[in-house]
Design brief:
Elements (H helix, E strand, L loop, with lengths): L1 H22 L5 H13 L3 E10 L2 E10 L3 E8 L4 E4 L3 E6 L4 E6 L5 H5 L4 H10 E5 L6 E2 L7 E9 L6 E9 L4 E8 L4 E11 L17 E4 L8
Parallel strand pairs: 6-13
Antiparallel strand pairs: 1-2, 1-12, 2-3, 3-4, 4-5, 5-6, 7-9, 8-9, 9-10, 10-11, 11-12
Helix pairs in contact: 2-4
Length: about 230
């Protein structure tokens, strides 16, 4: 009798576990990423503190974005350095060198330079990269021992034409991107963290206007020459 009861309990327990697992629907990584893209697609503008690391070099500043293609980063370190995308040009002002580099935007580089952390940019990533969960579809600490929880996705390039071999995206519980860690085509590490994100504050277009100081030397087409 004991063996029969034990066998029955095992069956009941198995059914309960099975039904619980089915109830906890696992969302495929690509679908989860698509939902994040749609959330960003509804954003009109945002502001965030940004920390950039390229290899051993680090930078900090404040990022401003306004749809569809306005971007500005005012750096605090290096002090007074500025990156601006005003919809038609990319400008990088380097005050220590008294240089402002200017590159007209084209369809080829507009999305790459200005819209990665936007609905448009994330849609481009979803078409160019295969998407999976880094380990499993659960929130995990941002860093070992961190109290901040994120969902981590891994994006692997589908073509060597892309600029990054791999991108690890950490998404906060609020649905906004907290960190991106990328490996470039030539195996350089690029990481940026976004904190203190403020959404839809009606950032004026004037925020994205930048006039280089008269003492600054201008270098045009610093990325590539325009086609005739």
């Amino acid at each position: 009798m004991f063996k029969e009861n034990r066998f029955g309990l095992v069956i009941i327990l198995g059914l309960l576990i099975s039904s619980t697992l089915w109830a906890q629907e696992i969302i495929p990584a690509a679908q989860y990423f698509r939902g994040i893209s749609e959330q960003y697609g509804a954003i009109e503008d945002y502001q965030a503190d940004i920390a950039l690391a390229v290899g051993d070099n680090s930078m900090t500043g404040v990022l401003y974005y306004r749809t569809p293609n306005l971007l500005r980063i005012d750096f605090t370190d290096p002090e007074d350095q500025v990156i601006v995308v005003d919809g038609s040009e990319l400008m990088i002002h380097l005050p220590r060198q008294a240089v402002t580099m200017v590159q007209p935007l084209t369809r080829h580089n507009d999305a790459t330079l200005s819209t990665m952390v936007t609905g448009q940019g994330l849609n481009l990533l979803s078409r160019s990269y295969s998407i999976s969960y880094l380990e499993f579809p659960n929130f995990v600490p941002l860093d070992e021992g961190s109290r901040e929880s994120v969902m981590k996705l891994k994006l692997e390039w589908r073509s060597t034409d892309e600029g990054f071999r791999q991108i690890i995206i950490s998404i906060g519980e609020n649905g906004y991107i907290r960190r991106m860690e990328a490996i470039t085509k030539d195996y350089k590490d690029l990481t940026y963290d976004l904190t203190n994100i403020v959404i839809n504050q009606n950032i004026p277009e004037a925020r994205f206007e930048f006039d280089p100081p008269p003492t600054s030397y201008t270098i045009n087409n610093f990325l590539f020459e325009l086609e005739e």
